[in-house]
Each structure stands twice: as C-alpha cells, then as structure tokens.
Design brief:
With 384 residues, this protein is mostly helical. It has 12 helices and 2 strands. It has a two-stranded antiparallel ribbon with strand order 1-2. A hairpin with a 3-residue loop joins strand 1 and strand 2. Helix 2 crosses helix 10, helix 3 runs antiparallel to helix 4 and helix 4 packs antiparallel against helix 6. It is globular, with a radius of gyration of 21 Å.
Length: 384
C-alpha cells in the first residue's frame, strides 16, 4: 500500500500542462469568433464560425479539470506538510501572484480592449486611476487564482474540523455504478440553480476581491471536491480506479455533438425558457464530466511519461498560465488587421505564443524566482 501512495502520477502533470496550453490557444481563438465581443482584448478583423464552436466546447471542461487536479494534489500536500506550512506555501505561490496580477497586470490587459480599438486611446495612468476600479474592473485570467485561494481556505477549514477524513482509505475501491450519474446530476443541479438567476456566461465582481461565474462557481467547487475524493480513494494509482478510454472517450465524443447542437440551437437566445435551461445544465454537466475523464483516461494510457519535454512543460505550466495574455495581446495587436489566410494567422499566432511563453518561463522567469534554489526542479504539483 505504501508503494501505491508514493507512486508518481506523471500523466496528471502532463495533463495540466496540456490544459494550460489549451487555455492559451482558447484565449487566442476568442479574438477570431464571429461574436461581437466588445469586452475582449483584441478582436481580429477576420472571423470564422469554427472558433465559435471551439470556444463553446473548450470552455466547458478546461477549468473543471484544473480545479480537479488542484483538489487531487492539495490534500496530499496538506497531510504531508501540515496546516501552517500548507498555508504558507499557498500564500506564496497563489495569493501573492494573484494580488500582484490583479493590481499590476490585469489593468494593462483591460486597457488593451481600448488600445486595440481606438485611434487615440486614453492615457493609461488616467485609466488605471479613474476607470479600472470602476466599470472596467476585472481580474483577467487571474480570477482562477482567487477562486483557488477560496477553495484552499475551505479545504483547510475542513481539515481543521475533521482531520480524520484526510486519512487515506485503507482499501482501494472503484466508484459504484451510481457514482458518476449522481455526480452529473449534482453538477447539473448546481449549474441549473445558478442559471435561474444569472445568464450562463455572466461574470460578477464580488467586492473587488473575487471575480466569479455565478452559474459555474458551485460546479467548480464540485470538481475540486471530486479531486479530493479521488485522492482519498487512490484513484488513478496502481490498483485504484482507472477510467476506461473507450467508454469515456466515446461518451465524450457523443456528448460533444449533443452539447454543441443544444447550445447553439436553444441557449444562444437572450431569454431562455426554464425548460431549455434545464437541458443546457444537463448537457453542459454531462459533457464536462465525460470530457474530463476521457482526457484523464487518454493521458493515463498514452502520456504517463517523465520525458524531458513533458517535464519542462509541467514545471513551467503555472508561469505560462500567468504570463500568456502578456504575450497574446501584443502579438494580436500586430496581426489584428493583416488580411492573410485566417488559419495561417491563427496557427502562426498560437505556435509563436506557446514558444515565446515557454522560452520566457524556462529561461527568464524560472532562473530568477527568489524561492527557487539553483538547480532545483520545480514541483509541478505545488502551484495549482
């Protein structure tokens, strides 16, 4: 049993790196959708409906997977290091970067929405003082760090009041036949309840502390909790529950088409009847679950590797996530009005952005991190 608990799950490192690269190309694709996204940072002059569909489907599962991975490794670190050290680690790795990103980088990102559209944009410092902490307030992609901080706080409270729960289950057991249908219904109910009061893509500023998606907040918490539950029961380890690629993969492909058909047909209208909202919640939650476990199954089977490139991508994934908009936006502004083939433009911007983000993270940021000793390997499990 001890060998099982100590076994490294490299595929989770690699899956996290893949998802963060997917976040990068997802954010690039936002600029090529046919929607009139007045709030998006750089909208390209060229559009294609393919990017509408790509954004709609990718948006369903990328963050739940991130929260689930965070939930899987957080109790492992909490039990090993204790409450005080766990809090100190998260404060250094999550809270301080979150605050710094919100105060110093998110205003620049928000300003780019004006800069990329106006011949004479307003003075940036005037914008920061007068507008950013008003109608233009946002946390850009750093909202994730804020919500992750909230979930870690809830985890620490749970550990404080019930530390016995965080003892690994003595027997490795697979989930019952009802577990995943019940989880799908739980997340359906969470999404549907929020959707009764908010539009499904609404973002909300909560006292300038958190920026949340009220329809998805509880769903994200469910996936964080699912990660904790999976760790407790030794899922994805030798002898533990291993999702079948054929079952989950085929289900995810079917639900991809079902979700996209339903989303485009019934839920893009301004006022959605309650019955349609229920269907949206069910298709969203089911596709999210099947896609999550299909990707886990895929990476566990084919990408459970400690190869150099995967190792370095995993080690730099948090930094890539943190800086990627700072690379995407300048490149997007440069190519915004170029009338070249849209696929050449999008693929070229994506490849250039990913390479630059990796090089900056690996060769500029990692060597100067104050808490990283010379020659030390960054632990991909800790930051997210």
């Amino acid at each position: 049993m001890q060998a099982v608990n100590k076994q490294r799950v490299y595929f989770f490192d690699n899956l996290k790196a893949f998802i963060i690269l997917l976040v990068v190309v997802f954010h690039i694709a936002m600029g090529y959708t046919t929607w009139d996204l007045k709030w998006w940072y750089v909208n390209d002059i060229q559009k294609n409906k393919f990017f509408d569909l790509f954004v709609l489907e990718t948006d369903v599962y990328i963050m739940p997977i991130m929260f689930m991975i965070a939930g899987y490794f957080a109790p492992m670190v909490l039990v090993k290091k204790g409450l005080t050290t766990f809090f100190q680690d998260k404060f250094k790795n999550i809270v301080l970067p979150w605050i710094g990103g919100v105060l110093f980088i998110a205003p620049l990102i928000a300003y780019s929405a004006l800069f990329s559209r106006m011949d004479t944009p307003p003075n940036y410092f005037s914008f920061w003082q007068n507008d950013f902490f008003g109608p233009y307030y946002q946390q850009a992609h750093y909202w994730f760090l804020g919500i992750l901080t909230l979930f870690f706080l809830l985890l620490m409270i749970a550990y404080l009041f019930n530390p016995s729960y965080f003892k690994k289950s003595p027997q490795i057991s697979a989930p019952s036949i009802w577990f995943f249908p019940a989880f799908a219904l739980l997340t359906t109910a969470a999404f549907f309840s929020g959707n009764l009061f908010f539009w499904n893509d609404t973002w909300m500023n909560v006292k300038f502390i958190f920026v949340i998606q009220p329809v998805r907040l509880v769903l994200h918490l469910c996936y964080f909790g699912l990660g904790v539950y999976a760790w407790k029961h030794s899922w994805f380890t030798r002898g533990g529950y291993t999702p079948g690629l054929l079952t989950w993969g085929s289900s995810a492909i079917i639900m991809l088409f079902v979700f996209l058909f339903y989303r485009v047909t019934f839920t893009l209208m301004p006022d959605v009847p309650i019955l349609y909202k229920a269907g949206h919640a069910l298709t969203h939650a089911t596709f999210c679950l099947t896609a999550t476990f299909a990707l886990i199954a895929l990476f566990q089977r084919f990408f459970d590797s400690n190869a150099y490139l995967w190792r370095r991508l995993a080690a730099n994934s948090y930094t890539i996530y943190f800086i990627h908009q700072c690379v995407i936006i300048p490149i997007g502004c440069i190519v915004q009005k170029l009338e070249i083939n849209i696929w050449i433009k999008y693929i070229g911007v994506s490849i250039t952005t990913v390479i630059l983000c990796y090089l900056i993270a690996e060769y500029i940021i990692q060597p100067i991190l104050p808490f990283k000793k010379r020659g030390e390997k960054t632990n991909p499990h800790i930051p997210l």
